[in-house]
Amino acid sequence: GLTHLPPDSPVRRQDFLLGVATAAFQIEGASNTDGRLPSIWDTFCRAPGKVLNGDNGDVACRHYEKWAEDVELIAGLGVDAYRLSVAWPRVMHADGRKNDKGLDFYKRLLDRLREKGLDTYVTLYHWDLPQHLEDRGGWLNRETSYRFADYADLLSRELAGRVTAWSTLNEPWCSAFLGYGNGHHAPGLSSTRYATQALHHLLLGHGLALPALQVNDPAARRGIVANVGAASPASPTPEDREAARLFEVQHNAWILDALFKRQYPDDLFRLWPGSEPLVLDGDMDVIGRPMDYLGINYYFRVHVKSDGAHGYTEVRAEGVERTQMDWEVHPDSLRRLLIGFKRDYPGLPPIYITENGCACDDRIEDGRVRDPQRLSYIDRHLSAVDGAMREGVDVRGYFIWSLMDNFEWAFGYERRFGIVHVDYDTQQRTLKDSALAIRDFLAARTP
Ligand code: PNW
Prior knowledge:
Layout lengths: L16 E5 L2 H4 L12 H7 L16 H15 L3 E5 L2 H4 L8 H16 L3 E7 L5 H4 L8 H17 L5 E6 L1 H10 L10 H25 L4 E13 L4 H24 L4 H6 L11 H5 L5 E14 L5 E4 L15 H14 L6 E5 L7 E3 L2 E3 L1 H19 L4 E7 L18 E4 L4 E4 L1 H11 L4
Parallel strand pairs: 1-2, 1-11, 2-3, 3-4, 4-5, 5-6, 6-8, 8-11
Antiparallel strand pairs: 6-7, 9-10, 12-13
The structure holds 4-nitrophenyl beta-D-glucopyranoside.
Enzyme class: hydrolase
EC number: 3.2.1.21
Catalytic activity: Hydrolysis of terminal, non-reducing beta-D-glucosyl residues with release of beta-D-glucose
């Protein structure tokens, strides 16, 4: 069971939203069915050496076919909500016209989820940019921000009434830094100058999309999802403390200052000299448009030391718990970060933890999937959320990443984040022990 979470925690109440999350590219498969166009991840997967084992998203979890079974799975867990993303390349043709076959898939899916009483949290962009837009410069081209706003307009007109809450972007930091800054993700470019420009166009697209969502689907809430990082200094020296602060500027303030202070942090450009993006008059006001909620994704802490100049280097800490991703487990950092955001950003909207979870070495034993580390990880992070709420942070919900094992980006199918196991030979889904415990926990909540 969940033994860390205090018995009187608000997280145990039915009004605290608990859900599971996925993303289109990671589960759907059917990569050229019903007129779906190629995305930058289809291209990236085909470039040698970019994705572990040469894996790709062509089949994934076959969710495009098995969606009805998967809705039963979600409903059977007893969660309140499901967070999913729409594949932009499924719902729009290259000339901007809608693709009804792709749209119908999401209409059926959302209708069934709502019939089951589930709230629907829909992300517009979880990294699968249509390749034809990348061919025109992708997020380095300001035009892409306007194409994203067109997509948001079309999608919110088509899906109005079926969505509880929209999220424009998932983790723009990852899109910009991993995609354009270090090349670990699609489209695989590496320059900090590119990263800051891509991030600016991503956030501009976010801001441009907000009015369309409001007009087309006024009953739905609107937000964005930011991944946040935590750093501890490798030693207590002022230099290493400054390094840890800079890491958090680069991961958190870069995005959150833009959204909630309408400026990029000066420290970012001391860290990356000469990397200022081109910002036109009025852009920061578009980026800073108000939202109904902020989604936060949190996974791990790192240790850093000074690089001897104006930057930081990551160091590998010994004697700490790690996951299958080699990520350091540190729940209290989530509590600390949430309290810091409340302090640093007056007027911050309510927060949902839109992703948290862990990849583990699951043990399969006579039909059971044992994953004790995962349940413990979730339990301790829910306790950290409880701790932040006790300090006055307005957290309304928490989504487990992920519903089921899926395509883990550059790590392919080798890293498993699901609370449901997927056998990729048979496509059979099996509840792991963590899922069984969470199902029991959900059933025992207090009104
Ligand atoms: C997030 N990092 O990705 C994504 O939103 C999910 O699609 C993904 O499956 C999940 O977290 C687990 O990785 C991240 O290197 C990828 O800091 C990489 C990082 C953070 C988040």
